[in-house]
Amino acid sequence: MAGTDPYPHHRPNVGIALFNTSGQVWLGRREATPPPWNWQLPQGGIDPGEDPRDAALRELEEETGIPPSKVEFIGEIPGWLAYDYPPDVREDPRFHKKRHLGQKQRWFALRFLGSATDIDLERHGEVEFDAWRWGELGEIPELIIPWKRDVYVEVAHAFKPYTR
Description:
By secondary structure, this protein is an alpha+beta fold. It is built from 4 helices and 7 strands; from the N terminus they run ββββαβαββαα.
């Protein structure tokens, strides 16, 4: 049936692949997360009634300090990409979103128009990342926690044209 949500039990979320003018992608190291799978792209929840593009700009600014005026949309993946939380994550009493089976994500590619001085990981107060670097899009699936990897493989494939 058209219009039916294929992931009704997954939390709505956005993901952002932020590219510099050299075609590299912004990678953040998750704060207080041990290696080896502690690097990822910015992502975060979509508030009720919020447009996914607006959520992408809001989440990018909250997690990186980069204001909307320093980016432009260059692409997106139509529809949702989703992953399930593994049982140990869903059952962890510290895990505040355990009512969801996982996350469904709308992914956007943005071009960074600013400079390194526009990046402030502590701007929002709730620090998501404790370090950042520019990296290659193709390396991200190996940097992400395994249960998110299939989504990152799809993102790397879909956004490969923006690396040129």
